[in-house]
Amino acid sequence: VNPSLTYKVMYSNGFRAPSWAEKYTTLNNIMKGGNPNLKEETIDTFEFAFIYKNRYHRLSTNFYYSKLKDVIDIGDVPTGDYKNFEQRTSKGVELEYRYEPSSKHRLDISLSYVDANYFSVHDVNADLDDQSMPGVPPFNLKANYLYKLNSRNYFSTWLTYLSESDPNYVFEDTDSVRQRLDTYKRTMFLD
Hints:
Blueprint: E1 5-16, H1 20-24, E2 41-53, E3 57-74, E4 82-99, E5 105-119, E6 130-132, E7 139-148, E8 154-162, E9 184-190
Antiparallel strand pairs: 1-2, 2-3, 3-4, 4-5, 5-6, 5-7, 7-8, 8-9
């Protein structure tokens, strides 16, 4: 076995109880009202990770698949009450690379891809029952360079890229339409 390589196979599960607002809020606007009959959400996640590292480099890859059941979300228009949806799935891969040639310089780059499906969110339009998760960009790229000026001060710059994401079609006919999130880029300089 190579000491530079690490493999991991993981399984996890969890739950989320409905919030007070999701269960008991009275319908005070056209968007949402509480539902005292909500069940807790559950999630099962399977992951496989691979990590390689040597003196200057670290490369990691993580593949995952998650299945959510009894998902709590806003129900169909026009009532908008919270309700449990049967299921949603999310699968993807995360890649991370770190180059650290000395204690003064570090470069981190990460890329992730997610395929998140949003089942049964709109009873009126059946072709949207398997749409992508609204507002979740499929691709996310981040890069960071860090330079250590001295023991107390650092210079760092970040670059973030988020690909275009799908809009939330559920509220297409209401006044609170969320437009498609276009490709997003951000560069930050910090010291």
